[in-house]
Amino acid sequence: MLENSLETAAASLSINIDGEEYKLSDLSDAARSQLTNMQAVDRQIADIQQQLAIMQTARNAYATALNGEIAEKH
After folding, report:
1. What global pTM score does this model have?
2. Nearest Cα to 22, choosing from 9, 30, 33, 11?
3. Which of 2, 58, 59, 61 has CA atoms 20 to 30 A from the CA of 29?
4. Do 35 and 27 form a contact (C-beta atoms < 8 A)?
5. pLDDT score, position 73
6. What mean pLDDT do residues 39-50 have?
7. Mean pLDDT of all residues in the chain?
8. Which candidate, 74, 52, 71, 51, places its Cα nearest to that of 63?
9. Where are the alpha helices (DSSP H) in the chain?
10. Angle formed at CA 60 by CA 54 and CA 65, multiple of 5 degrees
11. Do residues 66 and 58 lie in contact, with contact meaning Cβ atoms separated by under 8 Å?
12. Measured in Å, how far apart are the chain's first and last C-alpha atoms?
């Protein structure tokens, strides 16, 4: 029973591409594969953006510390 409900739910899932709605079940295997690839890349981009934010925060902290060191010497 649960398996049938999941299959029914999966069949009704859709995605919006350029303002157009497409049912996932209507996409070819190749199109679904490309969608999976895009989702994987999107996750990697999000991870890299998070790493960049961390690095920018660290750089700002180093710059603040450097300014403090320079101010102490002058």
Report:
1. 0.70
2. 11
3. 2
4. yes
5. 78
6. 98
7. 90
8. 71
9. 2-12, 29-73
10. 125
11. no
12. 77
